[in-house]
Structures are given as structure tokens and as C-alpha cells.
Amino acid sequence: MPEPLVKVVDLKKWFPVRMGFLASLFKKQQLWVRAVDGVSFDIYRGEVLCLVGESGCGKTTTGRTILRLIEPTDGKVFFEGRNIFELSKEELRPLRRKMQMIFQDPYESLNPRQTVFDIVAEPLRIHGLAEGEELRERVIKALEEAELRPPEAFLDRYPHELSGGQRQRVGIARALVLGPEFIVADEPVSMIDVSLRAGILNLMLDLKERLGLTYLFITHDIAQARYVGDRMAVMYLGKIVELGPIEEVIKEPLHPYTKALLSNVPVPDPDARRERIYLKGEVPTPISPPPGCRFHPRCPWAKPICREEEPEFLEVRKGHSVACHLVA
Amino acid sequence: MPLLEVEGLRTYYFTRAGPVRAVDNVSFYVEKGEVFGLAGESGCGKTTAGLSILRLLPPYGRIVGGRIVFDGRDILKVRESEFRRKYRWKRISMVFQGAMNALNPVFRVGDQIAEAIMLHEKVTKEEAMRRVKELFEKVGIEPSRVNNYPHEFSGGMRQRAMIALALACNPELVIADEPTTALDVIIQGQILDLLKKLKDEYDLSVILITHDLSVIAEMCERVGIMYAGKLVECADVRSIFKEPLHPYTQGLISAIPSLTGPKTRLRSIPGAPPDLLNPPSGCRFHPRCPLATERCRREEPEYVEIRKGHWVACHMAT
What is d(CA B113, CA A203) in angstroms, rounded to the nearest whole number? Predict the structure, then answer.
């Protein structure tokens, strides 16, 4: 196995629950939202690792913490062998060029008062990498790579003049302009019209091949994950419950939650008839996750041990790991 | 005779920049007890078509042409007072898009549904509340929770409550506008199953408006595909997925990934949906169509029945 490009070890991110004035006076115990509660995985150079799960499972927080856009509570993230959580802001800066993010909402993540040129040039200016004619050239090259053609025609336009698909391409150009190696893409097409989504996904796959990129692709849409991904990690309530090669996980899911999730994904084929696995209740709050296996209150196959003991995350087949007492 | 027939419906929004032809000469029908899907991308006019049937357009929107025949009567000719009393919510109701946030946060959920019942039927508060509890049972909410406020409900429960609200007066037709779009996949599965169950139980007709073709494939008997204010194709669900005739339908279907089947490269449709203030000439899809000819630029294609029950508006398909 080659050395991973990114190695995540027992990453935790807890957010404090804001308390009212009275509660703080009476010194009620501080509560925490355990958004990410101990996840470990590797991302290998040149692969697309998909992180899937329902809203609130911690997938976005995981992505942002890995880039240190938010500070972690605990754990380590190694990028090219260095723990980025131990680096100072100055030491981190050269690494930031190599790790970029594509955001979910191209309507919210582009400054409406900036031109496309300024949006894409900003990272170069911040890092002091280019100015004048060179700056312009690098911006044009990034727009070209994002397939905004002809790039010159986009330089002076504002986000509101562009379609959703074009906006997201500007977001991609902004991520590419620093020449990154690793990109976290957080639901990059969920806000985009159906007819334009495939174009963005194909662009990302082509860029990966051409520029040798590595992606962490965060999505709630497993069909989309299957299209772009090599491996898939399934998150539930702040933990990874299953991780493996994407086709294998989809065809032979091991964790009951993965099975339930897959059985509920609608398929664009009127002849497909599948049995949905019905889960009782809804996802509990990450403020006080259930003891033992976090999924046990909703699991159709839960046993007494599931209530008491947290299952270990074990490799049960080559490259396919799962955290479940029933499997291991 | 179908329960609902929409013929040549035109609904425009009158803006300062000019009329936006959101629904432009759209015709379809819905049989009793069937789920009819209305699919298309944002801004194609599918929600406006739904709102037109219930006559719930915003003040700047107006139905400028066409007929909407419900149970044999053109309901566009019915006076507003009668429409409100006899049709809206009584016989035709709607589950609104983003309905999860449509409940009033300062009133109890049960009271809000009871109010709808009491507005339409002469019943006491007690009787109305008894029916709300029945409805809760039907849609899978613990009846004791009628006294809860909306914030005490999860997203999935709020959507169930909105479905209960739509069913409150035993309607014959329910228009469900993106009923599962904001929900997670497991809750979406439960809501879709619930809609199917209720449809069978009450012999309901449903118009399911969604951008998600996978949901259409699972739920609908027949489907209409809308593009830029026009219905471009309409057929039974198998024909739409297995033998789509309109290049836009073909494009949409080859643009969505699937969990099953071989993994092939998806095709995207070039360009972007047009601005309906100035829609393209001729066929509105021609600037994005791989098959477009000079004729498509000049002449608007007619909407014709090519095979029994399969309509399409495309010069290349006819």
C-alpha cells in the first residue's frame, strides 16, 4: 500500500452548546455537540474518497476540520506526513496552497460584489504568488481549466450574471488557481440544476486525471458518490460506521445502517422493485449520543451487547472495514 | 373521463421587466386514483402549474388562457367565493414545497389542522380535533402529539403533519410539490411509502411535482416533462424512461447517476435553462438541443400524440 496523502487519526470536533444567562449563573454543566466524535481514515494519492451520510452526521464538519478551516477538538491530520494541527499559522500557509475546498452553494460562497477575476485572483494575492500580467494569466488559465470559455469573457462579470453551473465553475477555478493536490468538495452539485450536474461532475473527474488531484467528496447522494468515487465512508452520528471500495459497499453492505440507507435510495428505473428497510425513529441528538453502538436504538437487528459496548471499527475484508457487533 | 383535465393553460407573471410566461400552453390530464408526475428543472413552470390549479398565484401572477376541468366543470369559471367553499382544500389540496416550514410556529399543530377542517365543514372543535387525531394516526404521528408546537416535531414529522393537513377535508386530488426534497433519504423513503399507502386507501389522485426523476420512477404511473414553461413530453412512466422521444427527456435521463446498472459516463445538457422573459424562438429547447435544425429555430413544434398515450413536442420526433 502506498503512503496516504492525508491520514486522519481519531479526529474529534465538539461544539459547545450555547447556554442562557441563568443556566450559566447556576453553573449547569457545559453541554457539547459531538459533531465528529473520533473518525480515522486515509486518503490515497489520486483517489476519490466519498464521505456520505444524512444531514447532521458530521460529514461537512469532518471536511472542514481536515483543512483546518475550523480548529479540531482532538485528533491528528497528517498531510504529506506532517500533522497540520501542530503547525503555526505561518507554517501552515505553504500547505494551504496544496489543500483547497469547493463549497456547496455557489450562490453563497462567491462574493456578489467581486468580479470573477477578483474572486479567482484573491487566493494568489493572499499568498503573494503573482501580480500584474502573471496574475491575469494564471486566473485565465484556471478559468480555462474550469471550462469557462472563452475565459476573457468572464473576467469582468459578477456572480449574479452567471448560471448556477457557471458559478460553481468559478468556485472550482478559485480552488484550482493555487495548483492544489488535495481538494475537499462539499456537496458541489446539490444546489445546481439537474441538467448541469453531470457537467460539473465530469469536469471534476477530468481535472483529477489531468492534474493528478485527490478528492474528499462529501455528499448525501449515494448514486452520485458511486459515479465519482473509488471508496466510500458512511457516517452516522459523528462516527464512520463502514468504509470500503465503493462498488463492494453498495453491492454487499455490511453495516445495518448502510443497508437501510441504500435500500431507501430511489432508482431511476420504473421496473426496479426493492424492499425498503424501515428504521424506527429518527437520528438522535449528537449532544447525548446513545451508549454502546450509536445506531442500536434504530437497528432492526440490535442485540443486548449493542446497548452496552461500542463496536470496534475492524477490517473484515481486504480494505473493507465496519463497526458492528453483528458482523465482526 | 379523467378527474382533472388541463387544456392550453397559460399562466404569466407580470413583472416590471415584462410578462414572464411561466406556463405557456400546457395540457395534461389526471385519472382518478393515479399518481401523475410533473418533472423538470427549477424555473420550468411546474410549481406554477400546480398553483394555477388551486388558484393560489401571487398577486402579480395571472391565468391568461386555457381551461382547467375538474370533475366535468371548468373551475376557472367558478367564482372565487364558491371556489374557496367547494373546491380549494375541500376537493383539491396541496402539500407545499418546503412545507416543513409552513406551519405557524406559535400555534399548536393540531389546532392548525382543526382550523382547516372547521373552515370547510360545520363541525365543533371537539369533532375537528377528533378527526385530527385520526389523521395523525393515518400519517404515522402519535395522536397524543396534537398539542405539540411545530418546533417539537422533527422535519419528517412536520412533513407528515402537512400531509395530514392536505388530507383534512378528504380531497379527491392532492398536489404534492417536492414533498421530499428537503428530507434525508431514509425519511424520504418513509414519506413516499406513506403517500402510496394513502393514495390506495383513499383512491386519491396525486400530482407529484419534483425535479428528481428517481422519485418519479418510483411513484408515478404517468409523467409530464416540462421545459421553460412548456410541456415537452408526456407518457406512461415506462415509456418515459425506456423510450423517451424528446431530446430534453433523453438528456435528463442520461444525466442522472444510478445506484444500479453499469457505470457509464453521464452526459450533461450544454448551456442552461433560458430566461422566460425572452424565451428562445421556435422550440424553446433548440439552443441546447444536439439535433436542432433551422426549422427548430423558426417554428414552434406542435404537441402531438405520437403513439397512444404518448405526447411529444419536437420536430425531430414527429
Answer: 48
| CB-based contact B268 A271, cutoff 8 Å | no
B214 in contact with A, Cβ within 8 Å: yes
Question: By the CB < 8 Å criterion, does B151 face chain A?
Answer: no
Chain A residue nearest residue B250, CA to CA: A195
- Residues B185 and B57 both lie in one domain: yes
Give the model's pLDDT for residue A281: 83
- Residue B44 near residue B273 (C-beta atoms within 8 A): yes
Give the pLDDT confidence score for residue B99 in this predicted structure. 67
- R_g over Cα of chain B: 20
Q: Can you give the pLDDT at residue A20?
A: 79
Q: Going edge to edge, which strands form the sheet with A314-317?
A: A99-102, A182-186, A214-219, A48-52, A231-236, A239-245, A320-322, A314-317
Residues within 8 A of B (CB atoms), A 235-254 only: 250
Closest by CA to B181, choosing from A187, A257, A190, is A190
Closest listed residue to residue A85, CA positions, set A65, A64, A56, A60: A65
pLDDT at B18: 93
Residues 6 or more apart from A103 whose CB is under 8 A from it?
Answer: A109, A171, A186, A188
Query: Would an 8 Å CB–CB cutoff place B188 in contact with chain A?
Result: yes
Residue B124, helix vs strand vs coil: coil
Q: What is the pTM of this model?
A: 0.92
pLDDT at A187 > cutoff 90: yes
- Cell numbers describing residue B147: 398539542
Question: Could you tell me which of B303, B304, B281 has the C-alpha nearest to residue B292?
Answer: B281
Total structural domains within chain B: 2
The answer on B258 and B188 residing in a single domain is yes
Find the angle CA(B238)-CA(B240)-CA(B242) to the nearest 5 degrees: 60
Tell whether B180 and B288 lie within a shared domain.
yes
Q: Who among A226, A227, A268 is closest to B214 (CB)? A: A268
Report if residue B99 sits inside a domain: no
Residues in a beta bridge with A242: A234, A322
Q: Which parts of B169-236 fold into alpha helices (H)? A: 185-202, 213-219
- pLDDT at residue number B63: 97
Q: Does a structural domain hold residue B100?
A: no
Say whether both B155 and B298 belong to one domain. Answer: no
Q: Enumerate residue ranges in chain B where pLDDT < 70.
A: 99
ipTM of the complex: 0.89
Tell whether A161 lies on the interface with B, counting CB pairs under 8 A. no
* pLDDT, tens only, A34-86: 999 999 999 999 999 999 999 889 999 999 999 999 999 999 999 999 999 99
Cα A287 from chain centroid (whole Å): 22
Q: B-contacting residues of A 172-211, CB under 8 Å?
A: 193-202
The predicted pLDDT at position A1 comes to: 56
Is residue A22 within 8 Å of A223, Cβ to Cβ?
A: no
- List the one residue out of B11, B146, B163, B196 whose CA is nearest residue B93: B163
